[in-house]
Amino acid sequence: MMTSPLVVLRSFxxxxxxxxxxxxxxxxxxxxxxxxxxxxxxxxxNISRAAEAGIAEAVKRHxxxxxxxxxxxxxxxxxxxxxxxxxxxxxxRQ
Length: 94
Description:
The protein has 94 residues and is mainly α. It has helices at residues 14-20, 34-42, 47-70, 72-85, and strands spanning 6-10, 27-31. Strands 1-2 form a two-stranded antiparallel ribbon. The chain is elongated. 0% of the residues are buried.
């Protein structure tokens, strides 16, 4: 059975990087498919940057979904108003 290699990610505190040029932070260990990791390395992909970009995208998506859930009733109310009454100030549109 083939196991996935471990990828170690560190979260860097920007004040340390900017002020001292030292990278300090928490460490998170993740698993990544061996074939995928090998292919990424062969293509010259920066694994750390790709992982950070993927995590940033997942956080962004989660926040968007959370905002939509929290504001769904306001959005539904606004849409119902427009359906019933038309767009506000529609008479001023060209």
